[in-house]
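Course assignment 3, question 2. Fill in each field.
Student: A.L.
Task: Predict the tertiary structure for the chain below.
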Amino acid sequence: MLRRPGYAETGGRFGDAGRISGTKNQSDMHDGIQHPAAGHRERWLRLLDDCGVGFPKSLRVVEVSGGLVQATIGEPPGRVALEALPASVLMFNISPVQRLRQDREGRSFVSDMLSGEMTLLPHGIPSQWSWNSSCDRLDVMLSSEALGDDNMLEVVDRYAFRDAEMEVICRRLYHELSLNGPAEQVYCESLLMNLAEILLRRHSTASPGARLLPSGGLSRNQARRVLEYIEANLSRHLTLRKLSEIADLSVHHFARMFKQTVGVAPYRYVLERRLERAKTMLRSAEKSLVEISLSTGFDSQSHFASTFRRMVGATPTEFQGGYRRRPSRR
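Answer field:
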């Protein structure tokens, strides 16, 4: 069984998840490796290792009635192939911009997926996935009987779409699985049921007339340029005018279209990205709080500390101490 120091392990096997295969090149794309006795987390780590992808910085898995949730932080770029699974898969992108290619049923989907966008894969469909940068995401596997009643959940095939209500739930799940302690089982199960109900209403064969209306927001190229600029300049003073210039829009139209596309206002997005960068630096413990404050665009250490506590619920020191004390499960 593969292990890496510092992994927090929860959950286990999701039903009879079948065989998961991984390859390093196209010629190997259909070679399978079977580990029926291993849990989902171990199989995924083994798949990544077989692909030469490398292990993520963090991988948390929780199994609940009717499904499984997996939160990934910092998975290196690479390519994997998944054989047909008995569960539908919802992939929710957390990364600011993620270049993703997915091949399934003779079709290829290539896109710069934005944070908050998701893709939906029905059960029983083999697929190949490739991404070219470090990936943060939430994967949710749902069985057809997830709702536990006469309603069978048969999701439709969708790629790079948004659903504001589902986004809120996915971010709550990701946050819950990203905490230092064990995830709350009942809370995760409740959120999963909420997801299943929305999928049944809007994104399943039971709702064939459902349509996702276009957002009227930024184009994909505009969003990619803006988000990449933000990510590269988190240590600097960012202004709405500069971001609107990058998108080639007026300030007024940019702010409205950015929120329609990303789901939050520009200010809120920048603040959240600064705090996520700070969390990464706190975990590494390589820089002082003053250096972290300046590197993430805060005016001072006190400004950084007060904002961090208000948004995260702990001071930077408390967050760093909790991360260091987190037990690794072997």
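Instructor remarks: The mean pLDDT is 79. The domain at 220-325 is CATH 1.10.10.60 (Arc Repressor Mutant, subunit A).
Grade: pending
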